Amino acid sequence: MKTRILNGSNYQNSIFNKIKNEIEVIKVNQGRMPGIAFIAYVGHLPLMKYNIALHHKTAQGLGFNSRIETLPHTADEEDVFAIIEKLNLDDEIHAIVLLQPVPKHINAISIIEKIQKDKEVEGFHPQNVIETLTKGVYNTLYPMCLPTALIELFKISDIKIKEGQEFVFVADQGFISDPFRSLILRTASSQIVPKGCSLTVVNSDNNKIKDFCKRADYLMVISETPEFLNPEWLKPGVCIVDIYSNLIKEIPSKKNPSILIPIIRGGVNTEAVNNIASTIAPCPGGLMPVLLAVILRNAFDAFKNSTLSHNEFNSQSLIT
């Protein structure tokens, strides 16, 4: 079988066009624009500089007033608390995003708890997590972005999940043991696995990983080790979603050699699983465009929620 590549770019373009058009109308009619602030620690992860630029430039291109707040990776939590307090009080900022991952000495949950609930648009605030878990992603004001993006990706790709199928999440130990990363993983898995299907979360260094992967009809891979997944572990016809981005090298641009281009890979070698997997959402290009679209859609909804009446907000929400 030829493996079908799932690409989230068309979905992203569709959502971005809606956001951009609505922002232009609001600017003309109200003279207002949505504000978003990205907080990032720098110096601990080479990929972060690209993440900052991607989020900032994308938000600006849609019409957001985009602000960047950076801290050295050696900074402590009190430093970022001061930034968050300032942003919480700023009426021109409607959404606050803490770019991940943070340095290992930082407790991401403690930071996110400081963000005003209605400005925390990734769905990580404890109250937003509870709403996602109890109401589901389509009945929550700011649903957690990862499960929402996964559900949207399956929907636009016409992935039909059958009762009795098995979902396997293969994740590094850090994603399972770290409280914040585990929170995301557990919440995402609880939302995307339908009733009647089974779920297994397995450590990527488990010595029986092949046995777990062989059972998977849907395999979600979250690993900081690029292309570690062995194609021999796979069940023919499996659907794979490669979730985590790793910077493996930087190469000079052909057009301008002074500019470096990041080469990013996930935990799966897409070419190696061709003709084994039925479908794959590769990294980059698969899930990540959908995820960014969901984040900025939530951010725009936060702006509308702060400026429009409740009924007007519900009628104009972009969540479909």
What report would you give on this structure?
The structure is a single chain. The two termini are 33 Å apart. It is built from eleven helices and eleven strands. Residues 309-320 have low confidence and may be disordered. The strands form three sheets. A six-stranded parallel sheet has the order 1-11-8-7-5-6. The chain has a three-stranded parallel sheet with strand order 3-2-4, with helices on both faces. The chain has two domains: 30-119, 3-Layer(aba) Sandwich (Rossmann fold), CATH 3.40.50.10860; 145-286, 3-Layer(aba) Sandwich (Rossmann fold). The chain is an alpha/beta fold and 320 residues long. A hairpin with a 7-residue loop joins β9 and β10 (260-265).
CATH class of the largest domain: Alpha Beta
Largest sheet: 6 strands, parallel
Shape by Cα distribution: globular
The spatial strand order of the largest sheet comes to: 1-11-8-7-5-6
For this structure, the CATH topology of the largest domain is: Rossmann fold
- Which regions are unreliable across 5 or more consecutive residues at pLDDT < 50? 309-320
Topology:
Elements: E1 4-5, H1 9-30, E2 35-42, H2 48-62, E3 65-72, H3 77-89, E4 95-98, H4 108-114, H5 126-135, H6 145-156, E5 166-171, H7 173-177, H8 179-192, E6 198-203, H9 209-215, E7 218-222, E8 239-242, E9 246-252, E10 260-265, E11 279-281, H10 288-307, H11 310-316
Parallel strand pairs: 1-11, 2-3, 2-4, 5-6, 5-7, 7-8, 8-11
Antiparallel strand pairs: 9-10
Helix pairs in contact: 1-10, 6-8, 6-10
